[in-house]
Design a protein that fits this description.
Blueprint lengths: L2 E5 L2 E8 L2 E7 L4 H22 L7 H7 L5 E2 L2 H16 L26 H7 L9 E2 L3 E3 L9 H19 L5 E5 L2 E4 L10 E7 L2 E11 L3 E6 L4 E4 L2 E4 L16 E6 L2 H13 L4 H7 L4 E4 L1
Antiparallel strand pairs: 1-2, 2-3, 3-7, 4-6, 5-6, 7-8, 8-11, 9-10, 11-14, 12-13, 14-15
Helix pairs in contact: 1-5, 5-6, 6-7
InterPro entries: ApbE (IPR024932), ApbE-like_sf (IPR003374)
Enzyme class: transferase
EC number: 2.7.1.180
């Protein structure tokens, strides 16, 4: 259900999509204008979710998985996402891999304490390997049995897309786009207005915001295990899975938040930091971006 409420210095729009609370904070404007922006944002998010969700049977991802290695037609938007994924795979030395979603068959982060066996993981590792994905300007193919999962970048991509769409529709209004804690600002807030205020939740108290931050432009993304993890033998395993080993991270910080020019960029760096486990802070410090780590 979509809602729009008035606050002293902004409108707050809300809806649920991609299993997340989706929130817009909109500069003061006529109610009809704020509502139109909210409708446009939800429409864009629904289109992305419908197209790339692995939970649907009637979209591009489902057709790709049913194709048994045959090429599937793609459009320019998908080509852009694949190009970004390829760039990230190469920059991360294989730690970012959209084919690694298949590991969910072994791992469950639903509150249980069941740890997969090495045999279960070993059976899935041959199905991981971005280098075997084939695509060009108009088609995409995967070897039979492999999967492509856009979940690792889908929400951040949606945040950036909505922020860009609202910047086009309302270049004089600043809108803070917040989808489950991943944030981007459409255009900078006017100097006479206070900057947007956001808070980073602590992993131990995920419903309580701390680390208050002020934002006028750019994006923030957070990666962590406050919501999805399992505990086995006294060890806490994050839902962040290493595509090279098939194992969940367990020795890094609980949460990393990164500021960047785009939510996609910030989200990628936050996730890669966690994949570096004990070297997380050294990795993110070397990227020369603002960051916040919570152990």
């Amino acid at each position: 259900m979509t809602s729009l409420t008035r606050h002293p210095d902004y409108w707050r729009g809300h809806f649920i999509a991609m299993a997340s609370d989706c929130e817009l904070l909109i500069d003061p404007c006529p109610e009809s204008r704020a509502r139109a922006l909210l409708v446009a944002a939800e429409r864009r998010v629904r289109a992305i979710e419908q197209k790339y969700s692995r939970y649907r049977e009637d979209n591009l991802v489902a057709r790709l998985h049913r194709a048994e290695g045959k090429p599937v037609a793609i459009d320019g938007e998908t080509l852009s996402l694949l190009t970004f994924a390829d760039h990230c795979y190469r920059l991360s030395d294989g730690l970012f891999d959209l084919t690694s979603g298949v590991l969910r068959r072994a791992w469950r982060f639903d509150g249980c304490d069941r740890l997969p066996s090495q045999g279960e993981i070993d059976a899935l590792l041959p199905l991981i390997g971005w280098e075997r994905v084939r695509y060009d300007d108009s088609t995409l193919s995967l070897p039979a049995g492999m999967e492509l999962d856009f979940g690792g970048i889908g929400k951040e991509y949606a945040v950036d897309q909505v922020a860009a769409e609202l910047a086009r529709q309302a270049p004089s209004l600043s809108v803070l786009v917040n989808f489950g804690g991943d944030i981007a600002i459409s255009v900078p807030r006017a100097p006479e207005r206070p900057p947007w205020q956001v808070g980073i939740a602590t992993p131990s108290k995920p419903t309580q915001a701390s680390y208050p931050l002020t934002l006028r432009h750019g994006a923030l993304a957070t990666s962590g295990d406050s919501q999805r993890f399992l505990r086995h033998g006294g060890v806490r395993y994050s839902h962040i899975l290493n595509p090279k080993t098939g194992w969940a991270t367990r020795s890094g910080p609980a949460q990393v938040t990164v500021a960047g020019q785009s939510c996609l960029q910030a989200g990628l760096l936050a996730t890669l930091a966690l994949l570096h486990e004990t070297e997380a802070e050294a990795f993110i410090r070397a990227q020369q971006v603002p960051y916040w780590i919570q152990p």
